[in-house]
Amino acid sequence: MNVFKAAHTNLVILLILQTVILIGCQQYEELTNDPPEITTFTIPNEVEYGETVELRARVFDPEDDPLTYAWEVTDGVLSGEAGPQVQWTAPELPSEEVVPPKTVTVYLYVRDGGEDDVHKMATITVFSKPYKIAQFFSSTYTLISKQVHGDPVEEMSTLRLTPTTFTREIQMDPDKPEAVGPGQTQFLTGSYRFVEPFDESSGTIHWFPTGSLNPDISTYTWDGRLFVIFYPETNTSYIYEK
Predict the structure, then answer these.
(1) What's the confidence (pLDDT) of residue 117?
(2) Strand 216-222 vs strand 226-231: parallel, antiparallel, or unpaired?
(3) How far apart are CA 161 and CA 153, in angstroms?
(4) Is the distance from CB of 198 to CB of 221 less than 8 angstroms?
(5) Is 88 exposed, middle or buried, given 0-12, 13-18 or 19+ CB atoms closer than 10 A?
(6) Most exposed of 19, 41, 55, 227 (fewest Cβ within 10 Å)?
(7) Per CATH, which fold does 37-127 belong to?
């Protein structure tokens, strides 16, 4: 009987020791587990309103543990399974179209089973292409040439562009006062809109003089110094210099 009790006691002690050793190993493993590392974080610097792009990351884990990913954005829509890469659609362009850019922040959290996660963040500039081009063109231009049906026409004028408005100032020719009316200077103001396709070098513009709902349609070319505007309806061209 004493032998049986001794064997039973030894067995209990052995089980307790195994449990302690197992718990100790688990705790040691948790203490010595190195966190994962986000080695690359590929996020575009800027995208257009409504554009869909891919967000990617590359993660290294020393113990090669299974990883869980969590992506978050302050605006727009994420799609696809949460993994090292997801798709993100930028917010839609507001109805007014010519709007300033906005900043969206992207967060990535990665965990390997430990208590702590690692994370990265980056920002994306979301832009309106019309506004971006209009900002590029915003300046004051001086007319250096005007032609109607290929014939040169004398005119002195200045064109001022902001991202949303234009002002055209025409100075009177002393020899031809009837060209602009009885005043010394004629002002033409309004808004303008780009029509696809367009870029920094060429495209189509709809000009809306103040009080008019019908646009004056022109094409343009731009080389960084000369801004050439052509109105096909009147066969009139203007060459402005920045």
Answers:
(1) 82
(2) antiparallel
(3) 23
(4) no
(5) buried
(6) 19
(7) Immunoglobulin-like (2.60.40)
